[in-house]
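Limitations
The structure tokens in this dataset are predictions for the assembled complex, not deposited experimental models. Users should treat interface geometry with appropriate caution, especially where small molecules or nucleic acid strands are included. An illustrative entry is reproduced here so readers can see what is and is not provided.
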Amino acid sequence: MAKVTIDGITIEVADGTTILQAARMIGPDVAPPTMCYYSKLKTSGGYCRTCLVEVSKGSEKDPRPMPKLVASCRTGVMDGMEVKNTSSEKVRDARAGVVEFLLLNHPLDCPVCDQAGECHLQDLSYEHGNYKTRTEFERRTFDKIDIGNKIQLHMTRCILCYRCVKTAEQITDGRVHGVINRGDHAEISTYVEQAIDNDFSGNVIDVCPVGALTDKTFRFKSRVWFTKPMYAHRNCDKCSGKVSLWYKGDDVLRVTGRKDQWGEVEEFICNTCRFDKKSTSDWVIEGPAPINRHSVISANKYAKLVKPKEFTLNDIKAITD
Amino acid sequence: MGRKLLLENDHIEGIHSYEVYRKNGGYKSVEKALKSMTPEAVVEEVKKSGLRGRGGAGFPTGMKWSFLAKPEGVPRYLVCNADESEPGTFKDRYLMERIPHLLVEGMITSSYALGANTGYIYVRGEYFYIIKILEQAISEAYTNGWLGKNILGTGYNLDLYVQCGAGAYICGEETALLESLEGKRGNPRIKPPFPAVKGLWECPTVVNNVETIAAVVPIVNDGGDAYAAIGIGKSTGTKLISASGHIKKPGVYEIELGVSVEEFIYADEYCGGILNDKKLKAVVAGGSSVPILPADLILKTASGEKRLMTYESLADGGFATGTMLGSGGFIVMDESTSIVKNLHTFARFYHHESCGQCSPCREGTGWMEKILHKILDGHGTLADVDLLWDIQRKIEGNTICPLGDAAAWPVASAIRHFKSEFEAYVTNRKSIPDVKYYFHCNNLDAAAAYSSL
Ligand SMILES: Cc1cc2nc3c(=O)[nH]c(=O)nc-3n(C[C@H](O)[C@H](O)[C@H](O)COP(=O)(O)O)c2cc1C
Ligand code: SF4
Ligand code: FES
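Predicted assembly:
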């Protein structure tokens, strides 16, 4: 066992636990944000650098602080370690930098992006970013690519977290999906334009933290905050059959894996459940999916809102004067 | 004249061939090590020699070797890093081109010390003609019984392979190199685990630079103490310096560590002074990644002492007033050089070479290049210079591998020491000096090397 203190809160965890896991055990207030780590995928994490933390005391045995900020998702705890997350000015500064880098070439096309409302990059930039951009250069763009007939890849929005690459590598057989090119030209690609064609390929949509990989059966059908997620299950011979159904009225608009508090799916689901079972009669409904009350999806926050009164030009003048 | 340990025989006609190399004392270290020394004794000599890695980081080689994990029944590997791609560095190329057998000999002696039965030499893709030279040398070594099974009847087996890179600077980073060697995309690995524990094919591996491995030959031949007697303090032995830029005699020089920077630039034995007797403006002392220093700070430290060509002296003053010996890529710039233009060249390089795994380096390198481009085009503002500073600050230390730092340091140091030039550039829309430094090298002739094949 190892005792580790994060932002002043001490917890005892098993040896081999990472700083991030320990922080998540303490709770969401101390857990660093993550964009590339995914607990269900081996060797994930380390790329995006949003989870950087300061280790102000290495361990009981060797109390020297670590010279650089470390990626908490890939750094193991030591007994007596002291970590600073949001309590460190250095961390806050570096993290704002990372957010800026992630947004540098991002199109910020949230108004037309299906992921808006459940996008981790939106949350991240809102919570940790600066309100203003300092870049004035043309952003990198790519053409949209169809990966099979159910998935669309829009590289322009991608933050190269490598999650989909690891998913394709680890839960689907055959490695037909990877990264080509280098640096800020790097792009996710299906090897020699080959479609990912297997029973679990749809999971790349669920692991994508942004709107780069989207479900073509759902694209442009609805903003996510107008849909209601319900837990449901069915007998499936390929996967656990435990899913979230996203309803608008009586229609199931899409099916996804069930996501936990950190936005990671609990279990990967098969393509049959995801793409082919879109009527209520296919499923046994369990009840509403728990949604964080801060989320815009929560209880259709906007559905019951009264539309604000329209302002006239004179009203605005009165406010600004 | 300083002593030479590696390039002592480089002028001898035909030294690249086995016969001539052997006649001039070649492969003695293999005989000595395999027949009269235990592997541990070889490691001990390397430790005593104080040899430090010549690839850039300067980590003590003996210590690196003793960290190598030795689990039962798991093979160990020695990998030679011949990916030499740092702008301004071309010493490994010279050594491999002229005396390929020195590297092969060093590989055998070092592999023996580490208990490795397989060794790889990972050569930069652009050096494809050197691959032929090395393969020729290796096949001669096999024919003459220095490689293969039961070498010299001692029961020690070793196979050596040459692997060609595909033109990526990042594959010089040791873990990216290992990925590439395994046939994957050359992305640096996230450490730990370090290669000494899990390297090639997840087995314990030592990665060393060409020059480091070559230096093992004189160390074993003459003993670690003799090697340590050369140099100053913790900078022992000799070092190959690739000198380029505005100097009279660009080329590869073997120096005893401890020569003063002034002597190295101005003595006839080395660079021979500044081209056309102009004034010295700045030096990048250890390859494009290390901080650039203005003339006064490269010749003397901030405390007024003579700056020497040693790891410690060059680093004196930290990054505020010092730099690093790095890989020994010594780039000299005269008074006509534009620091801003030069920085743009470097920034373009790092942007081009970033592997793209981690966000600060992937996005930051491109951003810095674009801002420098804008400044060069005459559209820059003072705020852009501050922005550059802030970007490099947010990259440095926050990335997976040191390429991010390597991209940040040239920017930081150029602004630190030459801020007025940036300001002149953005306010007058140009800086007065207008020449970019250029590589210009006369004792290396790739064309001749091609035609000799
Ligand atoms: C981006 C990058 C490029 C590098 N390129 C080289 C190279 O071309 N040759 C080299 O020997 N070391 C290079 N290195 C250093 C290696 O990672 C490693 O430290 C070195 O090969 C160790 O050998 P040494 O201990 O003998 O110096 C590079 C490092 C980085 C971060
Ligand atoms: S620092 Fe740059 S080169 Fe190194 S791993 Fe990150 S993106 Fe790749
Ligand atoms: S979540 Fe740790 S680096 Fe991306």
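Some entries come with short summary sentences. For this one: Chain A has a mean pLDDT of 88.
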